[in-house]
């Protein structure tokens, strides 16, 4: 094989895996390569600050980036989540998760995706300059073919082979269709509306999970910029029958409807940035491992954003896969060995199942508007808030611990 591991896709998950494998390259001689359709040597387009999308990183994900030496470059541009307020609009139920109660400075942090991407890519470029990794960029994988001992990878102008190919391109390339890997999919008949919101008061590290109408609304703390001092990231779950109407609203009317649905607990909404919409589904790959192949990130599992767990689940998969690769090398077993890859998948199966079922259950529970469901939901929130051992276990699970 030309390489031990070849990663397809230099998005946040693929780049994180490459950074996680850096120690394995330096200590154990792993031969690592990465393929990316975009030219990684060129500066990327930077979105307007108020329009920049962000990701909520759990405490566990932040610890992973700290262990990789990446966190010092992120912390200065990250907004801490010190509290999470969960409530049901117009009802008595509510709960609050506090970092102080768990003995940590934050439950997690919110980092703009372009900032996180640049920090990861800067590490990869340094990695490449030292000759520790081969990067094919810009290049495209035309096809993947199983061969003895691994996979043959046909690129745009050349062909290489690898003992293990990690498909981390988000499932958008068509390679999974080519390989005949299907999905188990559930359509929620909802859309996610994402935008940044300017407020009239500081967020003070508070994240809001507000259940109003037919879907949850989340506000995540963001860092300030030169345009607006107080900003939060909105993730609004909207039923399919409402999405076209909401999407067509002018900004003033959009903010007015958002304020009416959410209420004033977080303050007054003053401005909204660029709005994006996308259909919400739960999609799980029917196969995540084959001989010489691992599916990672959104290509492996895309879950509802209600609890902000999708990316953090992918990072936990990434750390587990890197450990699996390292142990295979120690045992002098090919890193693409199916038995070893099945051990990785079995290790992560419980985490993936629990996380996806948890998010799915929240959607079902908080999308119901009948009086009995609302009463049961609010009694549950009150009980949860006062049952500290249960709340602590829940909080630490959400933190990725």
TrEMBL record:
GO terms classed as biological process: ubiquinone biosynthetic process
A single GO molecular function term of this UniProt record: FAD binding
Source species, domain of life: Bacteria
Listed pathway(s): Cofactor biosynthesis; ubiquinone biosynthesis
Keywords per UniProt: FAD, Flavoprotein, Monooxygenase, Oxidoreductase
Coiled-coil ranges from the UniProt annotation: none
Residue ranges constituting the FAD-binding domain according to the UniProt record: 3-326
Name this protein carries in UniProt: FAD-binding domain-containing protein
